[in-house]
Task: inverse folding
């Protein structure tokens, strides 16, 4: 099968026509770049994805990591992939030049990550985690820790991880029990257990560097007592070598999908000789870690959209080539069957997939542009972009994750029985997709974050900024008759969102926090659909502008495809908010009132 997992044209359409990434180069921080360098980076990313990552997609799934002699062994391709993306600058793509980074805009770097994930999600996770961990060290750690760990991590020689989860704590980080005791030599002795640590140990690198949450002896209870530590698998010694740091892999988890990256359980400090190095100040670990967690949430969204992209292109190729059946109006039973892409219901399934993943990718790049603007803005403007990124992060994580499952399911459906078999990659994509609503904060947690915190933060300032961004897009549509109608639909949807938001925030006072947050996940769904509709209207505006100029036949088909997909989303997906609005404004607290005893047989 041809290595078609992304559309280069769509990525460039989003980067340049929708979000004008080239304009970022007018900002001093990005002035060493131009569109030509961005294109060169994208082309080289596609080459690595095609030549290194895509060929081992199935192999990494069918031969998952193994624990052999206390060492996790991964697919042999991991080592050259890490070396290539490290030495080629992809791990440090958006890092400042002072750390030997490429200082690429976050939006362009996100497009590169999307390509890697679409080619092989498991392979793309290794550099993704390493980049996030290295950025955390750069942001908050001492110069000594930066000098010791970051160069090796950005070079791809050392793996980075985020080590948060524990058996008894799960998502409730306030309950972690991993301890840190001062040694008297400037470091700490770490002891505890961590579970579900992605890339937490493997032989594709020389060392693994954990960014680990723990509580210093005598720390305040709850999240206020959490500190952050650099805890390497092997610690540097005085002679410049590496020695074991008393971290043992107690098991490798066997997973439904995403099998090419090990997820491990770590036993830390069993011999009392695990050294950890404090990052920043004591008891501020969770504040620091939120930087990596929020980056990882955007990364999860990118991964989900990327897998849905790969599944869509597999289904599209199959639908074009597979002849079956005749159109309903055909009367001659001897007429040759038509390719299934001619059938309206198959086109509906393909449109749904495209509407989901291209809408989600647009939102993810929108968030990346906000990150670029926050990074390079003058002081008065920075809070605006930070707040917009804050309020959209739960949606950017959850919409692609949840809807991506449905999109890949529809890709599988296009294949019929073949889709359920290993003959085609969609069954793997279906399995690989399922982790995304779970890791880096479940969908339920994202809902609680959005409704319980983000829409109310700073007296609703983030929510107001979001509504202003959408209103600006609606206004831009008023000179086009077709898009003006879509703009009115979105305006009505925003009014309904505002009505629901006001109702729910009112219930906080009337009925208390438990009822207020009971259907936070449904509110997240509602908000997500409206947000993706906004992104499709932005894309439709850009497509209309392009069609007004000179375009080739191929370009015209691409832009018209955008307009039809926008029409699909507004006609099929956006109306779903009406049912959600009914439930969200119903004051009967069914899930709160339900007694756990009533679940008995």
Result:
């Amino acid at each position: 099968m041809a290595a078609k997992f992304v559309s280069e044209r769509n990525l460039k359409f989003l980067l340049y026509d929708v979000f004008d990434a080239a304009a970022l180069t007018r900002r001093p921080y990005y002035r060493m770049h131009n569109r030509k360098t961005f294109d060169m980076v994208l082309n080289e990313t596609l080459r690595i994805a095609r030549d290194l990552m895509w060929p081992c997609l199935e192999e990494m799934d069918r031969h998952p990591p193994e624990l052999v002699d206390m060492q996790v062994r991964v697919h042999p391709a991991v080592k050259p992939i890490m070396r290539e993306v490290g030495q080629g600058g992809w791990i440090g793509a958006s890092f400042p030049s002072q750390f030997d980074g490429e200082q690429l805009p976050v939006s362009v770097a996100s497009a590169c990550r999307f390509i890697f994930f679409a080619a092989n999600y498991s392979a793309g996770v290794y550099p993704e985690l390493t980049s996030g961990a290295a950025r955390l060290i750069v942001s908050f750690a001492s110069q000594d820790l930066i000098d010791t760990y970051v160069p090796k991590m950005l070079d791809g020689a050392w793996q980075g991880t985020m080590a948060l989860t524990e058996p008894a704590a799960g998502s409730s980080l306030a309950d972690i029990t991993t301890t840190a005791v001062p040694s008297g030599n400037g470091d700490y002795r770490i002891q505890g257990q961590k579970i579900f640590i992605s890339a937490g140990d493997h032989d594709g690198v020389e060392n693994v560097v954990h960014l680990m949450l723990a509580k210093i002896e005598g720390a305040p209870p709850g999240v206020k007592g959490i500190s952050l530590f650099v805890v390497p698998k092997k610690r540097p010694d005085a002679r410049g070598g590496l020695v074991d740091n008393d971290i043992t892999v107690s098991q490798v988890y066997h997973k439904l999908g995403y099998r090419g990256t090990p997820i491990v359980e770590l036993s830390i400090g069993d011999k009392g000789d695990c050294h950890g190095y404090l990052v920043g100040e004591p008891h501020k670990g969770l504040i620091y870690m939120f930087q990596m967690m929020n980056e990882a949430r955007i990364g999860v969204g990118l991964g989900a959209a990327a897998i849905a992209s790969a599944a869509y292109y597999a289904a599209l190729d199959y639908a074009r080539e597979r002849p079956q059946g005749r159109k309903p109006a055909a009367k001659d039973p001897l007429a040759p069957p038509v390719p299934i892409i001619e059938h309206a219901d198959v086109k509906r399934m393909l449109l749904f997939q495209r509407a989901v993943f291209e809408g989600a990718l647009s939102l993810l790049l929108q968030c990346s542009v906000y990150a670029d603007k926050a990074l390079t803005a003058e002081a008065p403007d920075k809070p605006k972009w930070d707040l917009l990124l804050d309020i959209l992060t739960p949606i950017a994580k959850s919409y692609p994750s949840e809807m991506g499952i449905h999109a890949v399911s529809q890709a599988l459906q296009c294949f019929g029985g073949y889709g359920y078999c290993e003959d085609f990659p969609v069954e793997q994509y279906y399995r690989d997709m399922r982790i995304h609503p779970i890791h880096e904060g479940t969908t339920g947690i994202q809902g609680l974050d959005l409704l319980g915190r983000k829409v109310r933060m700073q007296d609703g300032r983030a929510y107001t900024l979001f509504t202003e961004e959408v209103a600006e897009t609606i206004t831009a549509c008023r000179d086009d008759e077709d898009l003006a109608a879509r703009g009115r639909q979105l305006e009505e949807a925003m009014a309904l969102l505002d009505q629901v938001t006001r109702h729910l925030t009112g219930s906080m006072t009337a009925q208390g926090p438990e009822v207020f947050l009971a259907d936070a996940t449904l509110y997240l769904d509602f908000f997500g659909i409206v947000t993706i509709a906004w992104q499709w209207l932005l894309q439709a505006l850009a497509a209309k502008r392009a069609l007004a100029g000179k375009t080739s036949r191929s370009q015209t088909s691409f832009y018209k495809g955008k307009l039809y997909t926008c029409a699909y989303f507004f006609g099929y997906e956006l109306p779903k908010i009406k049912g959600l609005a009914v439930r969200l404004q119903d004051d009967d607290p069914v899930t709160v009132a339900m007694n756990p005893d009533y679940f008995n047989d």
